[in-house]
C-alpha cells in the first residue's frame, strides 16, 4: 500500500531550495547596490564640498597668512607657487594679517627650500623680511600643516588664512583645523590649476580622493603634493 499523503517523510523540494537561493541572490544584489549607492553619494558629496570650498574667499583678519609650498627651481618659484605667493602678497597689502608664513622643504638635490624661495620672492616684491617666517620643512601637505601649527604655537598665535590652489583648500583647511588652528581659506585665482576646465576637473578629482583618504586614515595622500608643480 502507498503511504497516506499526510504520512510522507519530510523532504525539502527542489523548488524550496531554489526559492531560498533566489532570495539570497536578490538580497546580495540589494546589498551590493546599496554599497555602490553609498559610495557614489560619499564621493559625490565630497567632490561637491571640494568645489564649494574652492569658491570661498574668506579674508577676515587673522594672525598670519600661510602659503603652502610648491615646486621651486634654484630659488625661483614655479608658476603654481608664484600664483600662491601673489595671492598672499595681495592679502598682506590689504591688511588681512600682519605676517606671512611660507612653508615647504626641499627635494633631494635642491639648493633652496620652498619656504626660503617663497620668502625671497615676497621680499623682492617689497614685503619686509621681518614680516615673513619661512618654515623650511614639510614634503607634503600634512607635514607642512603640522610644521606651521608648531611654529604658530611657538609664537602664541592661532588663526590663519590659508593660501593654496582652490581645489586644495578643503583638505588643507581640514588638516589645519585638526591641529587646533582657527583656519579659513583664500585661494589663488590664477595659475595652471585654474587655467582650463580639464585642469579644474583633474584638481577636483585628485583632491576628492586625497581628502577621503585623509579622513579614513589621517595620513597624507601626497606623493609628494609638489610633484610636477
How would you describe the overall organization of this protein?
The protein is elongated, with a radius of gyration of 27 Å. The strands form two sheets. The chain has a five-stranded parallel sheet, sandwiched between helices. The chain has a two-stranded antiparallel ribbon with strand order 2-3. The protein has helices spanning 14-54, 79-93, 114-124, 141-155, 169-178, 197-217; strands at residues 64-68, 72-73, 76-77, 100-103, 132-135, 159-163, 182-185. The chain has one domain (54-217): 3-Layer(aba) Sandwich (Rossmann fold). It has six helices and seven strands; from the N terminus they run αβββαβαβαβαβα. The chain has 229 residues and is α/β, with parallel strands linked by helices. The longest helix has 41 residues, at 14-54.
Architecture blueprint of SSEs:
Blueprint: H1 14-54, E1 64-68, E2 72-73, E3 76-77, H2 79-93, E4 100-103, H3 114-124, E5 132-135, H4 141-155, E6 159-163, H5 169-178, E7 182-185, H6 197-217
Parallel strand pairs: 1-4, 1-6, 4-5, 6-7
Antiparallel strand pairs: 2-3
Helix pairs in contact: 1-6
